[in-house]
């Protein structure tokens, strides 16, 4: 199955590291420039110190005079909040009143209008990009792609984990696909000695409770892996993968008690699985 395309705007770890490094360099450059300007001021002050001047005493202004000295041009903060000077309050009074209480017709702040109309423009762009034009993946499509990607990663993980199976970590697996794989491998490599029904020919039968080298998934896996050279049983460690050996061992276990016709006499000792 083909690998699904990765979602948009995705960055690799190396690309993220480069971005963080660039951001760090910009911040350090800003700090260096700030410190340089500060050192220049300190140096100039040491070379040419500013003479100390006695502060001048100014007469306190009344409120009207203070208002007259204020800058007439409104600041950016006042523009953003759409604030009006208090002397213009009379122009904002709404005609109706209740119990002498009057309302002011204050304008909507600029920042609110920017956010409000900006959100409308963003919503229109989002609607066109995802729902009308179909340029971006919607949630259900992203979910399907993520699940397909997860399945690929799962298969890769299981394939990697299968190579780590040994006689101590092997588990009983009754999955039909596993047993079918084990039967195929058994028929190809093992039935010459053990028979197509595991009844035993040259080698012992593998369907009863008696085992020459121990029963159970761990012992069977170990016997297949290392073999019994002194009795003619070859080692399959270099021929089969750990996953394939596990499949064969599980297939043999699945045939226990089938009692095929012509089975050989019991060999070895009766094996009873110990409780974990």
From TrEMBL:
- What keywords are annotated for this sequence in UniProt? Heme, Iron, Membrane, Metal-binding, Transmembrane, Transmembrane helix
Membrane as a keyword of this entry, yes or no, is: yes
User: Does the record carry Nucleotide-binding as a key word?
Assistant: no
Report the GO molecular function annotations. Answer: electron transfer activity; heme binding; metal ion binding
- Chain residue ranges for the region called Disordered: 256-276
Domain Cytochrome c per the UniProt entry, residue ranges: 177-256
State where composition is biased (Basic and acidic residues).
263-276
Q: Name one Pfam family in it.
A: FixP_N
Which residue spans traverse the membrane? 16-39, 110-129
Q: What is this protein called?
A: C-type cytochrome
């Amino acid at each position: 199955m083909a690998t699904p395309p990765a979602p948009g705007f995705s960055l690799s770890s190396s690309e993220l590291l480069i971005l963080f490094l660039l951001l760090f360099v910009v911040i350090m450059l800003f700090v260096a420039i700030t410190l340089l300007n500060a050192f220049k001021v300190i140096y100039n002050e040491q070379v040419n110190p500013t003479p100390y001047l006695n502060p001048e005493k100014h007469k306190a202004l009344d409120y009207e005079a203070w208002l007259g000295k204020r800058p007439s041009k409104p600041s950016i903060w006042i523009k953003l909040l759409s604030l009006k000077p208090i002397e213009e309050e009379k122009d904002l009074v709404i005609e109706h009143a209740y119990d002498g209480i009057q309302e002011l017709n204050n304008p909507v702040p600029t920042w609110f209008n920017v956010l409000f109309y900006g959100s409308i423009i963003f919503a229109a762009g989002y609607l066109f990009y995802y729902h009308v034009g179909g340029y971006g993946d919607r949630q259900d499509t992203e979910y399907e792609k993520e699940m397909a990607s997860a399945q690929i990663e799962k298969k890769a993980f299981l394939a990697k984990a299968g190579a780590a199976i040994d006689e101590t970590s092997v588990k009983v697996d009754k999955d039909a696909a596993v047993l079918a794989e084990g039967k195929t491998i058994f028929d190809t490599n093992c039935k010459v000695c053990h028979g197509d029904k595991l009844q035993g020919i040259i080698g012992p039968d593998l369907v009863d409770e008696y085992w020459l080298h121990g029963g159970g998934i761990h012992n069977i896996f170990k016997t297949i892996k290392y073999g019994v050279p002194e009795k003619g049983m070859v080692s399959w460690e270099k021929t089969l993968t750990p996953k394939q050996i596990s499949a064969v061992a599980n297939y043999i276990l699945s045939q226990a008690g089938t009692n095929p016709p012509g089975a050989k006499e019991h060999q070895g000792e009766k094996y009873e699985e110990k409780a974990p």
